[in-house]
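note to self — DONT lose this again. spent like an hour looking for the file last time. sequence + predicted structure for the chain T wanted, 136 res
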Amino acid sequence: MHNEKCIELIKLYENHRHLWDPTSPHHYNKQLKEDSWKIISKEMNLPISEVKKKITSLCGSFRREKSRHKKSLVTGSGRNEVYISKWFAYEHFYFLADKFSPRETQNSISIDTSSPSAARDTTNSEPSPSVSIWGQ
């Protein structure tokens, strides 16, 4: 697929937010998503399977390029060079820029701090000796 067709595909994909945004209220609506793939497929004049396969490939390339950029900011290579992608579709995928970033999580395990044993710090404690069931 030529670069121009890929960019057209990316724009169509971006317009169907529920396909790529898990915060969209329709993201888990399988029928709506399938209808969207049909629309994109018809617009691109390609089979649905090929459209999905190409989007998967393009998203993977975007993640790779984004990762290279991020690593160049973090690693101290001594050259002070920030990686700037030359991949033709990089700027067209910026609607996904934060999709692959980790989100803040909530701790779902409650810790009981009322008992003395729960408040005890066990990070530097010695392992307890093992007890044999055979009495030795």
